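Materials and Methods. Structural model of Cupin domain-containing protein. The 133-residue sequence of Cupin domain-containing protein from Kribbella yunnanensis was retrieved and submitted for structure prediction as follows.
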Amino acid sequence: MSAGQLPPGVEIIETRADVTHWIPAGAEARSVRVTLGPGDPGAPPHRHPGPLFGYVTEGEILFELEGQAPRILKAGDALFEPGGDVIHIEGSNNRTDQQAQIVLTMFALPGTPVLVPVSAEELAERKHLRVSR
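The predicted structure was written out as tokens:
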């Protein structure tokens, strides 16, 4: 079935043909749901062991990935992270009056952690890779 022939109720949110080279050989697919309470700052700056796709299911998330300008993702918005060396700087709940939630599919080698925190020193060393707000 092509995108124009999808059954009722099926919608393609995002298509990325340029990302398969980031998926490590032998990777497993992991589905992860992240729920952030009102005003939750989310995880500290970190890396993921492989690429991931995400879809905001509820609320608003302030999202900043190294090399990209910070942006607000709202319910229905999709995102992609290449993982590896790229730092996920921020993924906080942008609202103080409601929770936010995102569902992710991550591709990573078995046994690797979902995320690896980045030290304040390394973040400072890579400050030149951030895009100003």
